[in-house]
Amino acid sequence: MKQFVIELTDSAQVEYKLEIAQKAATHKDVSAVLVHVFMGLQVHVMQQEVLSLIRKTFPTAFICGLTSDGEIKKGRMISPSVLIRVSIFTCTSIGMHAFQIQPGEEIE
Predict the structure, then answer these.
(1) What does the domain layout of the chain look like in residue ranges?
(2) What is the spatial distance between Cα 47 and Cα 50, in angstroms, rounded to a whole number?
(3) Does residue 84 contact residue 35 with C-beta atoms inside 8 Å?
(4) Which of 2, 42, 45, 103 could bridge across to 80 with cysteines, CB 3.0–4.6 Å?
């Protein structure tokens, strides 16, 4: 597995910073790509633009979106920002499972 951690502070950086991970993801030995997007509510305006570009860059990837009040990169807190982690696998398959959480169940 190979991982790329990308910090964004504005949407103009997205395409450039995803380019290196995209090159690695197109290697012939890649079996799956998983993209985690960590985003605080304060950068909501970038959300659709970032997600559209991730889908375009990694069309077969599984994408997980997570909200937080700050992201951690190399041991330091980054806020407000968007942190994208691209995990590239060579011998792993990825599946999706979703389930409904009713209001209040997340506390249990």
Answers:
(1) 2-81+88-94
(2) 5
(3) yes
(4) 42
Strands 76-78 and 82-89: unpaired
pTM of the predicted protein model? 0.76
SS3 58: coil
Which residue is associated with the tokens 């169940």?
A: 105
Residue 101, amino acid: I
Of 34, 33, 40, the residue nearest 9 (C-alpha): 40
Q: Which residues pair with 14 in a beta bridge?
A: none
Burial 86-98 (b: 16+ CB within 10 A, else e): bbbbeeeeeeeee
Burial of residue 101 (number of CB atoms within 10 Å: 0-12, 13-18, 19+): exposed
Q: How does pLDDT run along the chain (108 residues), one tens digit per residue?
A: 899 988 877 667 778 888 889 989 988 899 999 999 887 766 666 777 888 888 999 999 999 887 766 656 677 766 667 788 999 999 998 888 888 888 877 665
